[in-house]
Amino acid sequence: MESYNPDYVLILSGDHIYKMDYEVMLDFHKEHNADVTIAAMPVPMEEASRFGIVVSDDESRIQKFEEKPAKPSSNLASMGIYIFSWPVLKDALIKLSGQPGCDFGKHIIPYCHSNGKRLFAYEYNGYWKDVGTLGSYWEANMELIDIIPEFNLYEEFWRIYTKSDIIPPQYIASEAVIERSIIGDGTEIYGEVHNSVIGSGVTIGRGTVIRDSIIMKGTVIQENCVVDKVILAENVTVGSNVVMGIGADVPNKVKPDIYAFGLVTVGENTVIPADVQIGKNTAISGVTVKEDYPNGMLESGETLIKAGERL
Amino acid sequence: MRAVGIILAGGNNRKMRELTHKRAVAAMPIAGSYRSIDFALSNMTNSHVQRVAVLTQYNSRSLHEHLSSSKWWDFGRKQGGLFTFTPTITAENGDWYRGTADAIYQNLDFLKRSHEPYVIIASADAVYKMDYNKVLEYHIEKKADVTVVCKELQPDDDATRFGIIRMNEDMRIEEFEEKPMVAKSNMISAGIYIIRRRLLIELIELCAEEDRHDFVNDILIRYKNLKKIYGYKMDAYWSNISTVDAYYKTNMDFLKPEVRNYFFKTYPDIYSKVSDLPPAKYNPGSVVKNSLVASGCIINGTVENSILFKRTFIGNNCVIKNSIILNDVYLGDNTYIENCIVESRDTIRANTRHVGENGIKVVVEKNERYAL
Question: Three-state SS for B77?
Fold first, then answer.
C-alpha cells in the first residue's frame, strides 16, 4: 500500500452480485469530506436484524452501528463496501495490528468511529445480493433465469466480464427439453433442463432430468439421472441412473448451518458412481464408489467427503 | 517453425451474394462462435508459425475488428506476431491489390525481412484443421519447389469453382486448370501452398516485372513444367465456404456429431475472439431441437435444425427451421423463418415470414432497431 501511496482506498467483497459505479461513491466521499464512507442499502425492516445496520443523520453522517440488532433503529444495511481516506485506514491498521482476527466491520470501522472520524453512509438503491451462503448463492442463480431478471446480464450498459476459455456454441439435441434456464458455451444437452443454471462445457445425457440446479463448468451427467435442487461444482462426473435430491428434508448431521436449504452440494472433481440415490441437505466430495453408498443410498442429512482422493 | 504464414483474405466473392456486401469472406461467421479466418489462423498458431501476415482489401472493416487483438490466436509475442496489410498508396504504388501475387508483391518487405526459409500461403475461406508441419516435411522430402495442398471432392460436389489438378504417380502436378467450365477430375487445389521464401520472392518479382498479378495463373500454372510443383493430398475434413450454398452446408455440417467433435472437442482447438457474453437464455415457450446456440442468445420460440449465432433474440411464437441466424439479429414475435440465412444485426419485425423455396434465401431487411 505504501508503495502506491493512494489518497483513497476502496474495499470490496468478492461474494456480492451487484452493479455499482464506485466513482459516484468516491465523489460522495470527497463532497462530504469524509474519512470513511460505507455503502448501505435500505432493506425491509423485518429483515434488518440479519444485517449490520448503520444509523445516520440527515446529512448522512453515521451516528452508530448495530450488528444484527434484535430491534433495529434503522433499515440501512451495510453492504461491506467501504471507501477510506488512506491516512485514516493506515492509522487504524497500525493501531489495531495486535487485534486477533482484525475485521473491518467489527474492529476497524468502530475504531474510526470512536476516534471521532467522519463516517458517512452512501445510500445504494439497486440489486445487491450477498452469495456467502449456499442458500443465497442458489437463490441468486435462480433469480438470473427470471424472464426479465432484476439483475440483467443482457443489458449492453454496464456489462459483466469474466474469463471465458470455452469458445464453441452449445448443442441442443433433438430429444432435449429446455425451459427457463441459462446455459453456457460448449455445453451439450441431450436430456431435460428446467429452471437451472448450466455452465460451460457441461454434458447432460439422454433421459436425464435436471431441475432447480446449478451445474458448473466441465461437469458430465450421464444418462437417465434425476437431479433436483443440486449444486454441482466444476468437473464432476455423475454416472447413469443416479437420483439426487430425494427423500425427507432432514438437517445435515455434521454442518446443519451450512448444508441446508434442502440442497445437495457436490464439490469439484467429485465422481458419483452409477445407480445410487442421494438425499437432501447432503454434501459429497471426492472420488466416491458404490461401496460408499449403503444399499445404494446416501440418506438425507449425510456427508460423504473422501479427502485426498480427488482426481 | 521454419516458415512464415501469409493468409490471403482479400478476396471478394459475388457468389456469396448479399452476405459479402458488408464483410470479407474471411470474416464470415462460422458454426455459431467463429469466423472463417479463425481456422487458418488457428492452424498457423497450432503449427507453431510465429509470424503471420493477413492480406486484405475488400470490406475489411469487420475483419479488422475481429483481428483487433492478436492475443486470441496467441500471436501477441515479441518475436513474430500477427500483421494485417491493406493496400497502401505510396510514391511508387497507387494501385489496389490487382491479384494474389500483386498482394504479396506489395508487401514483399514482410518476406524480405523474415529469416524463416519457407512460406505457408493459405486462404481464409475454408473450414479445416491442418498441421502445416506435415506438409512442410513432405515438401522437403519431395524436394519440391512448390507444394499445393489438394483435396479429393465427393463425386457430387461442384469442382468447377476450384483449381483442378492432375498429378502423376509421384504426386507431381502435371495439369492445373483454374475454374474450368468442365471439371476433368474431382481433385482440387485447397488454396494452401508451401514454397521456399527466396524462391517466392524471386517468382513474385519476376511476375511483377511482366505485369502479371495472379499467384495461381501466373506462377503455379505458368511454371508447372519448369518448377517441381507437388500435390499434398489432405484426407481430413475440409470445406470451402465461398458460395451461399457451400456456406450454408459447411455451417450445417456442425450439427453432425462427428464434425462437432472433430472441431470442438479434439486437439488442437480452434481459437477465436472472445466476446464476454452471458450464457444463452431459454425462456418459457422456447423449444430447441438439434441446434447450435451461441452465447448471449435469448430464446422465446421454436428453433429446429438451425444455428443461432451470438446475441440472437428470438421472440414469442417464432419458428426457425433449417436456418442460420447470424450475430445480433432480433426476430420479432410470430416470425417464421425456414431455409434462410438472416444477415447479422438485422431486425425482423413481428409476423414476418421468410422461406427459401428453391434453395437458401439470404434475408437482409435493414429495418431500424428501436431500443430493446
Answer: coil
Instruction: State whether B307 and B255 are in the same domain.
Output: no
Kindly identify which residue of chain B lies nearest to residue A185, measuring between CA atoms.
Answer: B295
Residue A64: all three cell numbers together: 452508530
In a domain, B143, yes or no: yes
Same domain for B218 and B71: yes
Tell whether the model's pLDDT for residue B4 goes beyond 50: yes
Q: Does B295 touch chain A if contact means CB atoms closer than 8 Å?
A: yes
pLDDT at A12: 96
Question: Tens digits of per-residue pLDDT, B6-18?
Answer: 999 977 777 888 8
Mutate which: A19, A145, A185, vs B, most B CBs within 10 A: A185
Whether residue B332 sits in one domain with residue B261: no
**Is the pLDDT at A310 greater than 50, yes or no?**
no
Cβ–Cβ contact B30 with A under 8 A = no
CA angle A159, A162, A166 (to 5 degrees): 120
Is the domain of A230 the same as that of A203?
A: yes
Which residues of chain A have a CB within 8 Å of the CB of B271? 167
Any domain includes B94: yes
At B203-259, the pLDDT tens digits run 999 999 999 999 999 999 999 999 999 999 999 999 999 999 999 999 999 999 999
**Interface membership of B73 toward A (CB under 8 Å):** no
Does one domain contain both A153 and A277? yes
Of A63, A52, A155, A142, residue with least CA distance to A106: A52
Indicate yes or no: pTM above 0.95.
Answer: no
C-alpha count within 13 angstroms, C-beta hemisphere, residue B332: 14
Total domain count, chain B:
2
Q: What is the CATH number of the domain that holds B228?
A: 3.90.550.10
Contact B31 A169 (CB under 8 A): yes
Domain hosting residue B157, numbered range: 3-265
Instruction: Give alpha helix (H) positions in B13-107.
Output: 37-46, 61-66, 100-106
pLDDT tens-place string over residues B262-301: 999 999 999 999 988 999 999 999 999 999 999 999 999 9
Digit-coded pLDDT (tens) for B341-355: 999 999 999 999 999
Contact in structure between B292 and B255 (CB atoms under 8 Å): yes
Do B257 and B328 fall into the same domain?
A: no
Residue B301 cell numbers, joined: 420460440
Q: Quick one: B198 and B127 in the same domain?
A: yes
Same domain, B16 and B139: yes
